[in-house]
Amino acid sequence: KQEVTQIPAALSVPEGENLVLNCSFTDSAIYNLQWFRQDPGKGLTSLLLIQSSQREQTSGRLNASLDKSSGRSTLYIAASQPGDSATYLCAVRSYSGGGADGLTFGKGTHLIIQP
Amino acid sequence: SQTIHQWPATLVQPVGSPLSLECTVEGTSNPNLYWYRQAAGRGLQLLFYSVGIGQISSEVPQNLSASRPQDRQFILSSKKLLLSDSGFYLCACSLAGGPGELFFGEGSRLTVL
To answer: Which residues sit opposite B81 in a β-bridge?
Structure first.
């Protein structure tokens, strides 16, 4: 059964820093991996989707990488801003995902960017 | 692009009362539709999954049910709510035949007293 872990659970950094969020998964037989952002009391906003055949995806200041062999993905945020403060979740779609959707979600990293 | 509407946004209900949460999707046809529940400190739990009208897969045995009366409408229901049904309910969709990207609505906060 797929397991997804996000470390750290919480992170607080000063504005302007570049930072990396980590997502690890136990079963490398995946279809894709998706990063989301969730603001308090809101739904999830899709940030980046990486297919299993891809190594990375970029959108603005965000860059997500995927290393299937090591079971890891990272989300790189450049020049962080207070508006980046949110919880970031990763979700892995895989054969061993368990549910009908094949998705396994991490519990997220709560990010605070200090002004 | 697709947009997902959920309502109500917030709901406070007594134990034993019925529930109806609605979700509609705009901007796409024949989407795959999902209901998730997010409890504090826990990950997202898939409740129901639908690939078409009247086709519902139930993931968790409980007193909740789902229906899909129209292509882009997904309804979560209960006849009698329990305290443990409190949580944040999220409707999501993915495009049929698409790359598998998941899109979420704004969520419905349910408090059962």
So the answer is: none
